[in-house]
Amino acid sequence: xxxxxxxxxxxxxxxxxxxxxxxxxxxxxxxxxxxxxxxxxxxxxxxxxxxxxxxxxxxxxxxxxxxxxxxxxxxxxxxxxxxxxxxxxxxxxxxxxxxxxxxxxxxxxxxxxxxxxxxxxxxxxxxxxxxxxxxxxxxxxxxxxxxxxxxxxxxxxxxxxxxxxxxxxxxxxxxxxxxxxxxxxxxxxxxxxxxxxxxxxxxxxxxxxxxxxxxxxxxxxxxxxxxxxxxxxxxxxxxxxxxxxxxxxxxxxxxxxxxxxxxxxxxxxxxxxxxxxxxxxxxxxxxxxxx
Length: 291
Prior knowledge:
Blueprint: H1 3-8, H2 26-45, H3 50-57, H4 61-68, H5 76-85, H6 96-102, H7 106-117, E1 118-125, H8 136-143, H9 152-164, E2 176-182, H10 183-187, H11 193-207, E3 212-217, E4 231-236, E5 241-245, H12 257-273, H13 277-290
Parallel strand pairs: 1-2, 2-3
Antiparallel strand pairs: 1-4, 4-5
Helix pairs in contact: 2-6, 3-4, 8-9, 11-13
């Protein structure tokens, strides 16, 4: 293969849109700066020039310098290849987890961290299936309908961040999770038939977990406190909690006990009016059969 032919195959910044570091994300900036510094020190320790290293991992020299300078987020495969080329024994590849988190929007990352600490999570949704219950295909179709439209790169980043939050199901011991979904969220045609079928199947799968209570609020129910908007409650092992509702306290997260009691009262009333878990799963199974 000629040199010119090889250069044409090297990845450049134009090949990787959406992998810039958010300058307002202090944690992300620090992580990527540290990773970039480690990559540079490893490369220099083996006496390899940036251009030679770039050709070895399939990247252009300019992009190598930007990654090492903390200006670009390295892809997981970049770290894996760098680990092999530089003989790092897995130390560089091990940075993938923290690097992957940097791509998630800060507010999503903060929410995921709280969910990871929570011993109880309660969610009422009246507009779409809750994020912790969504399939990647449903999330992509839902987020893809928002205006102004996301770029394809940002869309995939948001989908990945949302699905990553579902690691909460893998915790041991598992937190107690409860969900109440309005019937309208299930009937809304988000995505095509296959997307909806997969989403119903996912709901049935999660709804049968011993740590999960899934309920449906039928459309013919009486008026209830959730009609003002979404509610989310998270309780932690130390007795503290945080809650948020679209229809209370200007939609801001609250930790004050009096405000939390209001959200708990509303959520408890909603659960009492919704279909019991067994009937809810039967309802979802029926909708799957109709789809």
